[in-house]
Amino acid sequence: MARRKKIYEGKAKTLYEGPEPGTIVQYFKDDATAFNAEKRDVIEGKGVLNNLLSEYFMLGLGQIGVPTHFLKRLNMREQLVRSCEIVPLEVIVRNYAAGSMSKRLGIDEGTQLPRPIVEYCYKDDALGDPLVTEEHIAAFGWASQQDMDDILSLALRVNDFMSGVMLAVGIRLVDFKIEIGRVYDGDFQRLVVADEISPDSCRLWDIETGQKLDKDVFRRDLGSLTDAYSEVARRLGVMPNNPPAPSKPTLVN
User: Which of 155, 172, 150, 151 is closest to 163 using CA atoms?
Assistant: First the structure.
């Protein structure tokens, strides 16, 4: 098979040119990073789980009319996505106080917020993805006011969908981040949910026990990250409860 051209390699994924113009192959790696890549490790199977879970969420969003860049899953580690221009923002939706919000505002982790709060960070690893306001976004031309209205609407629709899906399997959606891409059809532009949606980009807590089922397991050394992600996949039906053990070769007479 011909070698594919690598477009970009990030902390968790590698992007390759797709088979058709306007497409990209997104490869999910087993690399785990935290604290702006100051902590890193390779977690066997993580990429497979994130690929399967991101496919599940992207398909679900598509079924309720939320546009995404997802086209199809190609195999256990790769999916085909639409090429798009990424808006240089991380869009964070918070339902409960946790992580940086708790530190910044002195709110106890797990405190339910009066309503979902949407925050924006400028995507720049060298700067540590700093928190920015809509005033910064407008002043520096990262997105128009119409774009921001559409981004806010998309973020809240994703939150409604994800919150409901997780609640149904006994998981609290504490917060999550998404990226937004611009897709051009001639002179017409539309915004789509891009990148991935997985336990790497969400905070997920068991409703009854408070057990963390997301990347905080890795950040805070709380146990096996693979076990946590597998539990999310199992509850959502992405993985069978008892996957069959691989069979041994059988002699044929």
Answer: 172
Distance, CA of 112 to CA of 13 (rounded, Å): 32
Domain end, chosen from 82, 98, 120, is at 82
Q: What is the pLDDT of residue 243?
A: 46
Look up the CATH number of the domain holding residue 76. Answer: 3.30.200.20
What burial class does residue 29 get, using C-beta atoms within 10 Å of its C-beta: 0-12 exposed, 13-18 middle, 19+ buried? middle
- Is the pLDDT confidence value at 209 over 90? yes
CA dihedral for 21, 22, 28, 31, sign (positive or negative): positive
Helices and strands counted in the chain (H then E): 6, 14
Side-chain half-sphere exposure of 156, counting CA atoms within 13 A: 10
Gap between the Cα atoms of 181 and 93, Å rounded: 17
Of 215, 216, 154, residue with least CA distance to 179: 154
pLDDT at 212 over 90: yes
Residue located via tokens 């398909």: 59
Going by pLDDT thresholds of 50, 70 and 90, the confidence category of residue 39 is confident
Cα-only R_g, the chain: 19
Report yes or no on 231 lying in a domain.
no
- Tell me: pLDDT of 37 over 90: no
The answer to the question of residue 238 being in a domain is no
pLDDT of residue 228: 97
Q: What per-residue confidence (pLDDT) applies to 4?
A: 81
Distances (CA, A) of 242 to 49, 64, 237, 238: 16, 30, 11, 12
